[in-house]
Amino acid sequence: MRSARRGNSGFRSENAPLTWTIFAWIVGLLVFFPVLYIVLTGFKTEATAITLPPKLIFEPTFEQYREISSRGFFPFFRNSIIASLVSTAIVLVLAVPAAYALALRPMKRWRDVLFFFISTKFMPPAGIIVPLYIIYRDAHLLNTLRGLIIIYVAMNLPIAIWMLRSFFEEVPRAILEAARLDGAGIAREMLQIVLPMVIPGLVATAFLSIIFAWNEFFFAVNLSATEQSATVPLFMQKFITSEGLFWAKLSAASTMAIAPVVILGWVSQRQLVRGLSMGAVK
Amino acid sequence: MDRGLNRRDMMKLVSAAGVTAATAGTLGHVAAQTPEISGELNVAMVANPQMVALQKLAPEFQKAYPNITLNLLVLPENEVRDRIRTDVSTQAGQFDVVTIGMFEAADYALQGWTLDVGTPLSADDNYDMADIFPAFVSALSGEDGKLYAAPFYGESSMIYYRTDLFETAGLTMPDKPTWDEIEGFAKALHQPDGPYGIVLRALPGWGEFGAPLTSVINAFGGRWFDMDWKSQLASPESAAAIKFYTDLLINYGQPSATTSGFTECENLFIQGKAAMWYDATSAADLLADPSLNPQAANTGFAYQPMEKIGSGWLWAWAFAVEKGTEHEEAALAFVKWATSKDYVQLVASQLGWGQVPSGVRASTYADPGYKEYAAGFADLVLSIIQAQDPTKCCTEPVPYKGLQFVGVPEFVTLGDQVTKELANVVAGNESADDAIETIDAIANQWAQDNGYQ
Amino acid sequence: MSTTSRMTSASPRSARGKGDARRYSTIGRWLVAPALVYAIIVTQIPFFYALYISTFRWNLMQPQRKENVGLQNYRDLIASVKDSVLHGAVDIYQFRAAIVNSVIFTVATVVVSLVLGLLFAELVNRRFPGRNIVRTMLITPFLVMPVAGALGWKNLMMDPDFGVIDWVFRTLHLGDGPVWLAQYPRQSIVIMLVWRWAPFMMLILLAGMQSIDEEVREAARVDGATLWQEFYTITLPNLYRFMQLGALLGTVYIVQETDAIFMTTQGGPGTLTTNLPYLVYETAVRGSQVGRGAAMGVIVVALTIVAMTFLLRSLDRMLQGQYGDA
Question: Is the ipTM of this complex over 0.85?
Answer without folding.
Answer: yes
